[in-house]
Amino acid sequence: MELNQLTIHELQGKIKSGKTSAVQIAESVFKRIDAVEKQVHAYIRLMKEEALAAAKKADDDIKKGNIKQLTGIPIALKDIVCTKGITTTCGSHILHNFVPPYNATVVEKLSAAGAVFVGKANMDEFAMGSSTETSYFGVTRNPWDLERIPGGSSGGSAAAVAADECIASIGSDTGGSIRQPAALCGIVGLKPTYGRVSRFGLVAFASSLDQIGPFTKDVEDCAIMMNVLAGYDSRESTSVQAEVPDYRQFVGRDIKGWKIGIPKEYFIEGIDPEVSSAIKKAISVIEKSGGQCIDISLPHTQYCLAVYYIIAPAEASSNLARYDGVKYGFRTAEARDLLDMYKKTRTQGFGAEVKRRIMIGTYALSAGYYDAYYKKASQVRALIKRDFEEALKKCDIILTPTTPTPAFKIGEKTDNPLQMYLSDIFTISTNLAGIPGISVPCGFTASGLPIGMQFLAGHFEEGKLIQIASAYEKNAKIEKRRPQL
Amino acid sequence: MISKQEVEYVAHLARLEIDDAQKDKFTSQLNDILLYIDKLNELDTKGVEPMSHAIAVTNAFRDDKVVESIGTESSLANAPDARGEFFRVPKVIE
Amino acid sequence: MEFETVIGLEVHAQLLTETKIFCNCSTKFGGAPNSHACPVCLGMPGVLPVLNKKVVEFAMKMALATNCLINKSCSYARKNYFYPDLPKGYQISQYAYPLAEHGHVFLDVDGVQKKIGITRIHMEEDAGKLIHDEHNPFSYVDLNRTGVPLIEIVSEPDMRSPEEAADYLKRLHEILVYLEICDGNMEEGSFRCDANVSIRPRGQKEFGTRAELKNMNSFRNVQRALEYEVKRQQYLVENGGKVVQETRLWDDAQSVTNSMRSKEEAHDYRYFPDPDLVPVIVDDTWVEKIAKELPELPLAKRERFVKDYQIPAYDAGVLTVDKALAGYFEDVVKLCSSPKAASNWVMGDVLKFLNEEKRDIRNCPISATALAEMICLIEDGTISGKMAKDIVEEMYKTGKDPKAIIAEKGMVQITDEGALSIAIQKIMDANPNQLKDYRGGKDKLFGFFVGQVMKATQGKANPQLVNDLLKKMLAG
């Protein structure tokens, strides 16, 4: 096994015992990037120089015995988190040259924990997409099948982990943008409770739904990453001052006596049969592990997508108003006057999907439509949240497929926005309710595409998610495969 | 149903230009989405308090203490057009 | 046809906090352009607002001082529109759930107390500044003011004349400055006013179509603009025209209001709750704490001055316009125990000097102690009222205390009977004819002798003593 193929906890063991150095790990990652990045295109920008310098510094720390949670671990950052002095594009032409004078809180936390940043990962423009095809910087390909999409919007972060182009990565999840690509790339992805991980420095898509979380190769790594990321931040008003447990303690614990709710609304027509059978197999593993699966109902499930496609674009239409060619980023070269400058800058600076969502959102908030759209959606959102509260009184965990199908082909859904939106159908409700969710690999299709399963829990119960995901990971004994590149 | 005129109005509100060729495609795509969204009207939501935050946090405050600003140079560093100590923009045509 | 004027005002007051409403940048006026700016107020991607607690407390003070009900819960909304002075493309304001509602203030209208309703008070952020280049097709943006906290005070359409509107505005201004939450500077824009004005035939219940007036940067201009606009609307209606709902700008140079319709967008602000900010919950304990911090307000102070110092209501009104002036007056009274004299000196000479130089009472060269001392010197007869006039002017010019000036100029009254008697005798000797005539019944000549004594003593003789001695000695 090459160093770049190992997990965080495996590398930590080698670092602590002196069997390897941070520089060796970083070099191994960049060697892999040199070999496969042309095919995968997981990154918008690589940070080789900075990474090697950080790795050297990590080695100095290691020599001094100062080993922190992520000392020397190469991490990729979705290009939606602001990095001081390093271009942060959000996958958009309109921010193609934006250099933030500040770091996102998560970047500061990872840095303080000793992480080595490999680069800025590709993503759908402003995180609007489910396939990483809307990036201004080109598509990212699924390492398991280069003809297929890696999922999105955090497709670059997921593909980089799956292709061993980093050890772990950071993504953001507004309607499934961590869990869906994690499922399609065969890795672990967690969306924390809203307010658990700071959004400061996360370029906003839909502020009431956005949440940062990790992509990792296994569940224990996910716990390690959460130990670094979680916690209150006074720079964010919606940050929650709740105690953060040591998530690693949940790894390896059993789930005997737990009730696992299976929502009937999530097992609908249109689910790929191979996904369906993988989930059925996973349910039996959970039962063998001591969990008791029960039927539950989330009656407003069928409305989630509609609610999401009002609230997210409405917030986005306002969040993206700041891209006006005045203070930073792209400005059109040909403006007659101010109004013309605004319109040309935004028309040339945003891609089609972003414009589509700005249009939907602007429409939903405009005079005469607010009550019918935004207000109505906010009310139904309350009902959806209530569904989860009721359901979680009856069970500890909710289990669903992460996606209805495995990775689809590049270009397959780009002309049909609604079809594209439907690929997030199982992940969106979580963001609306603000609860945490994790996607874990649960097998492969006959043609070798990964399949993911999602666990959901109540607010701030990431520990439970890690516990059941780790129990499943241990007992399912999914064969270890690596994509052939 | 959203009309082409409404699409134009909304595009103007959002400061976007949609050329005639795209307008039909855009209008029909938006209509597909809006038609889908319309299913919310099946639900009676009378008396349901609209939810604008996922988690009920209240009274998040900051103390009234000055922190050194980043300075004019840094403020203007990313500007597509800066002159002296100002951002420069084309004039508003009245 | 007889018309009735209906006016409502929207007042924006910048709050005197150290930092902006949602970030830690300084609110100081006059820094280098774009120097009081950070990623938050520059609207950079990914940064987030956190509310300055002081802003809420200052706004609560105004709410309490204007008898508003403070809502248990209020929240922020985004007002979306594009303009270069608005870096986020939206202004954070309050919309559906403002901080406070249902307040009022009283005006004195022809001796009767009139209640003017306050619809709501809410908090919001100020925009930046746009400077237009007169020669080139460019504008320049300075974002220092972006995010400076404002409260907006919206009145009911309760005012019936431009004078009432100006008076209401002065009352609000006075309260804000008393509370020390706004510096009230209209020229620098820290206190701004927009007016909604309409007319209707007297007796009609429905409101007429209103025009919104902007760009009035002094109390005088508010009144003038309203007067002009009322006349314009009346002329329009009387000549078969119709008032259209629009925004009009006051042009000070031309003394007219002009429609700015051409510049205006159809307003579609797409307000919605700001997901980045959380509700503000104000409980009774917090309200009580703020209520305790409120200073005595102008109206209460006025009433107290009349009652405690027995000064006329007019004096009390003048003295309480400015809290510092009222304080100055009270300091003087404490040391000289003659409220009416104190009031006369403060309102007369002191304010005259200050006004001539556009100076503030806080920078008055005459300290309250010195003025009190001077008043005592008049009372105990050391100086005459006439001498005091000169002395107070000297005190203002030099900042010296009255005793020093009196000593320097030898201004002490001659109260020595012996010395005065000698002087009077000399004058009687030098003017035998006048003495004869006086003694012959020409009483009017008494004034002549007083004048001569004053002349001989360079005005320093105690007038009362001169009177008494002259009467005795002239009689023979």
List the helices and strands and how they pair.
The complex is a heterotrimer of chains A (485), B (94) and C (476).
Chain A: H1 8-16, H2 22-40, E1 43-46, H3 48-63, E2 74-78, H4 105-112, E3 116-121, H5 155-162, E4 168-172, H6 179-185, E5 188-191, E6 212-216, H7 219-229, E7 259-263, H8 273-288, E8 292-296, H9 304-319, H10 338-349, H11 352-365, H12 371-394, E9 397-401, H13 417-422, H14 428-433, E10 437-444, E11 450-456, H15 462-476
Parallel strand pairs in A: 2-3, 2-4, 7-8, 7-9
Antiparallel strand pairs in A: 1-3, 4-6, 5-6, 5-10, 9-11, 10-11
Helix pairs in contact in A: 2-3, 7-15, 8-15, 9-11, 9-12
Chain B: H1 4-13, H2 20-37, E1 61-62, H3 72-76, E2 82-83, E3 86-90
Antiparallel strand pairs in B: 2-3
Chain C: E1 3-14, E2 51-52, H1 53-65, E3 69-70, E4 73-74, E5 77-80, E6 90-93, E7 100-109, E8 112-125, E9 129-132, E10 138-142, E11 149-155, H2 162-178, E12 191-201, E13 211-214, H3 219-238, E14 246-251, E15 256-259, E16 272-273, E17 280-281, H4 284-293, H5 298-309, H6 313-319, H7 323-336, H8 339-356, H9 368-379, H10 385-398, H11 402-409, H12 417-430, H13 432-439, H14 445-456, H15 463-475
Keywords:
heterotrimer, B: 94 residues, alpha+beta, flat, C: 476 residues, Arc Repressor Mutant, subunit A, nine-stranded mixed beta sheet, three-stranded antiparallel beta sheet, 17 strands, 20% strand, elongated
The 3D shape of chain B can be described as flat
Give the tally of β-strands of chain C. Answer: 17
End-to-end span of chain B in angstroms?
34 Å
Poorly predicted segments of chain B: none
Stretches with pLDDT under 50, minimum 5 residues of chain C: none
Q: Averaged pLDDT of chain B, please?
A: 91
Overall pLDDT score of chain C:
90
Task: Give the topology string of chain B: H per helix, E per strand.
Answer: HHEHEE
For this structure, the quaternary state is heterotrimer
As a whole number of angstroms, the C-alpha radius of gyration of chain B is 23 Å
Beta-strand percentage of chain B?
Answer: 5-15%
What gap, in angstroms, lies between the N and C termini of chain C? Answer: 78 Å
Number of strands of chain B: 3
- The share of residues in helices of chain B is 25-40%
Q: Please describe the biggest sheet of chain C, giving its number of strands, its sense, and whether it closes into a barrel.
A: 9 strands, mixed
